[in-house]
Queue: 4 jobs
Job 1
Amino acid sequence: MTAIQQPRPASVWPVRVYYEDTDAAGVVYYANYLKFCERARTEWLRTLGIDQKNLIDTRQLAFVVARVEADYLRGAELDDALEVISSISALGAASILFHQEIRRTGSLLFTATVKIACVDGFKRRAVRIPDDLRHLFESKA
């Protein structure tokens, strides 16, 4: 895996906390931070012109989560305006390592390192990231 020397944010995606995102204590349920991160990565791909459904349908490729390390630092609450900041920290032959943060007005609430594997959409086995996509990711890292 090739580390990116100084990763810059690939994207900053805004998210509002809704009632459905919270638990009985009134804070964001822990698993929902991962949903926010997933949506941010998906929307980043869209900005690059990559539609994940189309990628599966036309090229039999999918990007799937292979590993997550997360730290929950502070809780978000109902109606908070958050930002999910995503950057590529390394590119492997068949994987992308993302660093993601969730912030509320600059205050760090959550961090995650997420390894995304490129897989054959039918065989569900890891495959090399195609050169056109690799170059696109490198240009944004």
Job 2
Amino acid sequence: MTVKSFLICLSIPFYLLACKGEKKEVKQTEITFKKEGELLIHKIKTDSSTVALDIEIADTDFDIQTGLMYRSSMKTNRGMLFVFDDVAQRSFYMKNTKFPLDLIFIDENKIIVSFQKNAKPFDESSLPSGARAKYVLEINAGMVDTWRLTVGDSLSYTE
């Protein structure tokens, strides 16, 4: 081995250590609620609105994929309404969602067709609609029971 080769071999570990550099801390910005509309839920038996919510509307591919991920909480009088282009069986999951939710599946006539209650944070299990839906409303877990919502109740919303 020549002196030149020896020096090159000796310098490689120092070069690699120097290139490693400092670790950079990545800060994740908290996503905050942005009111984009108001939603009323109407009870089928009384035809009166029993629940009023401020809503965010998820109607783009990015918003639908992201949903309420990376947020730490949501106030009781708020929700996220997912609006799809078509009516189909839906399936959601709780990946990167930090707090429990109730999911309300709604058909094209804005009638509630099914629920998934108390979805667990970070759970990647499928939460199927069990019926065809055009809309999905995510609210805090327990609110479906608190508000005594039932299949057949309806909703209206404004943007």
Job 3
Amino acid sequence: MTLPFEPLADDAPAALRGLDLLRIERAGPVLHVRLNRPAKRNSVSDELLAQLHTVWLHIAAIQPEIKAALISGEGAHFCAGLDLSEVSERNVTQAVHHSRSWHACFDAIQYGPVPVIAVLHGAVVGGGLELASSAHIRVAEASSFYGLPEGTRGIFVGGGGSVRISRLIGVARMTDMMLTGRVFDAAEGQQHAISNYLVGDGEGLAKGLELANKIAGNAPLSNYAITQALPRIADLSASDGLFMEALIASIAQGDDAAKERVRAFLEKRSHKVAKS
């Protein structure tokens, strides 16, 4: 299937050009960022991480037109994790700063201006699973498999996985994966809530684009409130979370776009919720 992705326009921010380890395209309101190290199974080198971070630092500059984003991987795999060839070159202090650079990049994705969908296939391993967990929705193809081999390699997750992945699958399951090297296939990943959608091989981008276009049709403030407030409310006590919920709900309902959508529903100009 041919998808309607096109190169960025000439007036896109200069910082988004010349990022040779990424392929950046768009389809209408949807930005598509593809990891482009297929010969290395899209393992994350320092330079790839820096380029990925650069995209999300500048995405706000094209955000009025871009309302959702996709992340995928070129070649046979989404991302095989950290480029281990760079690990031995760091001392402890450098390793701490390196880990924090991963946190900064993935925080920029999770808490950026637009919702993000990760389209997964092949290896989603180590840092690749950490990257996927920073997205808001994950679409997995049947070839996807998931692993956290850090324990068997004498290292520890350093890209936010101890927080994000444990929230997706639970501490006990993550502990099992790290201690034993257990690998989940696509069906198990769906069962354990790593992925939100499971599709056939070669169908992930089409499904991701379909979902991204739906998301892009929402009120921007509502999308922003959902992606920013929900994870923060989850960190609060119940009473504090309910108070924040009331504040966010009031702000969202006061937005002009929200008022127009409510009027459209009451005037029967928009559809009711129904099972598709």
Job 4
Amino acid sequence: MIKEPYVAIERSIIKQFRKEIWRPFVKGLQAYEMIADGDRIAVCISGGKDSMLLAKCMQELKRHSKTNFELEFIVMDPGYNPANRRLIEENAALMNIPVQIFESDIFDAVVDVDQSPCYLCARMRRGYLYDRARSLGCNKIALGHHYDDVIETILMSMLYGGQVNTMMPKLHSTNFPGMELIRPLYFVKEGDILAWKDYNGLHFLQCACRFTEQIARDMEARGAAKDSADVVHTSKRQEIKELIKTLKKTNPFVEANIMKSVENVNLDACIGYVSGGRRHHFLDEYDKR
């Protein structure tokens, strides 16, 4: 009997990629207590490799977990061109993910923004996703950020923001009381996600916003590679990716050490820090010790 393609895709997660994907996925869930009995979780799908893998992992988890929780799979169409939307729908059908697609006008809202359109787009997306999830009775949304996103954010925060911050594994929403965000792929590395994608012969969306598409057209007109648009619009993150890659040549543990750096913060060895919205300075308590 010929099995549906999604069966092989599901099997690859818990068999061929058990060590690289399934175990780190479960480790993150357990380490940061992301899911509890009674949760109703909206898995947010952009159409890219990360969120599509997340959807399959969450389906597998529900199938095997003793924790009682429910899932919704939501896709926000912020104004995709027809080909990109069709690719999302086709991949969802191929992978047996019952997506619910809803529309927004985010692309129209940010297309003429000169500074940080990607940041504004991401912020607006989050709000739309929280709102839709809440309307479906969900108390959590799950996003597809992975290990590489986390360590890159740590370095970007230091080198470009002058602060020590990380992408948290879970957090309470400030604008949607009672809602929470979780990142189940927190310990899953991007290279392993790419390997899983290639193993299954899958093809997903890259960034499909109008800003990226316009850059691609401009670069194509100049004879540049089409896919280099992804590098341009995320140039700072790409710089950090390349920096980490270079550092790994002399220190194979650099990625793990970056991650550990925000787990082992010694406040007694910090000039200053912010907690609960209040700024603290080491001199505040210096002569009291």
